[in-house]
């Protein structure tokens, strides 16, 4: 399967020109939101994903967000950029996540949750680090699309799902079935497309901290915590919260900041879910 995996990455199509437009906007720190909206509206799937997330329990609740401009205003430029880049990448890879028994919507939900948690958590501590890690946090599980396809091609879906349930450890199952961690696969996808090393390295070593270059260790540790917490199959489950908290302690992070962010986001989700139910 390792050989097939490497070949799958090597044969990925080039990203469309729209990614260059979005990256140029992001790198230039452009504040002209109307220019960004004009770029993004060209892609109906980007518009659809942004509206879905803006109406999820991460944001929506009091009223339905029906216009793209309102969604951009609600989510903020940095998250909009992450969703847009993630959408283009997932569309280019063009695979499903059946092997994980989840949908593409589940992927975008857990990825948005990861970015929101980074924004809330690191926003209390280090704004520069927050800005650097928001996009890697959103993109770090993109390798799951490749893993899912290979497992399906190898007729291993039933066994993979059984292992996921029995072990409750997605990363261990991915390594067992493919020979690679999802983080390493994601990093190689971004390397194939010539993404910045500031995105590639923190993701690549998220699950290989012992070999992580010193300059990227702290970033990889942060992504590791968020990866556990926002697990695509069980985001913010009690078990994943417990595992993430253990990592926070192990890495000597400030527990109070972590718990403050966790409480804030869980409260937001609960409140928005209640509003959504009362409006239906």
TrEMBL record:
Q: Which residues form the HDOD domain?
A: 12-209
Looking at the record's lineage, which domain of life comes first?
Bacteria
**PANTHER family hit by this protein:** PTHR33525, RIBONUCLEASE Y (PTHR33525:SF3)
Q: What is this protein called?
A: HDOD domain-containing protein
Species per Swiss-Prot/TrEMBL record: Aliarcobacter butzleri (strain RM4018)
Upper taxonomic lineage = Bacteria, Pseudomonadati, Campylobacterota, Epsilonproteobacteria, Campylobacterales
């Amino acid at each position: 399967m390792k050989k097939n995996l490497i070949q799958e990455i090597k044969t990925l199509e080039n990203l469309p020109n729209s990614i260059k437009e979005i990256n140029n906007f992001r790198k230039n720190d452009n504040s002209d939101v109307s220019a960004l909206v004009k770029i993004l509206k060209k892609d109906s799937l980007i518009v659809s994903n942004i509206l879905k997330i803006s109406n999820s329990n991460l944001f929506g609740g009091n009223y339905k967000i029906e216009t793209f401009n309102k969604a951009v205003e609600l989510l903020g430029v940095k998250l909009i950029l992450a969703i847009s880049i993630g959408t283009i990448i997932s569309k280019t890879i063009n695979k499903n996540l059946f092997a994980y028994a989840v949908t593409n919507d589940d992927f975008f939900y857990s990825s948005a949750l990861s970015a929101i948690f980074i924004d809330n958590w690191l926003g209390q501590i280090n704004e520069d680090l927050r800005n650097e890690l928001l996009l890697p946090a959103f993109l770090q599980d993109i390798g799951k699309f490749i893993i899912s396809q290979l497992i399906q091609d190898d007729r291993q879906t039933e066994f993979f799902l059984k292992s996921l349930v029995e072990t409750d450890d997605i990363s261990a199952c991915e390594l067992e079935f493919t020979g690679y961690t999802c983080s390493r696969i994601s990093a190689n996808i971004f390397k194939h497309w010539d993404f910045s090393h500031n995105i590639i390295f923190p993701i690549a070593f998220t699950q290989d901290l012992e070999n992580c270059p010193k300059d990227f260790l702290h970033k990889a540790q942060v992504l590791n915590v968020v990866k556990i917490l926002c697990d695509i199959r069980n985001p913010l489950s009690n078990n994943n919260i417990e595992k993430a908290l253990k990592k926070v302690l192990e890495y000597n992070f400030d527990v109070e900041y972590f718990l403050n962010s966790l409480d804030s986001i869980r409260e937001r989700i609960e409140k928005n879910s209640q509003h959504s139910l009362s409006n239906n």
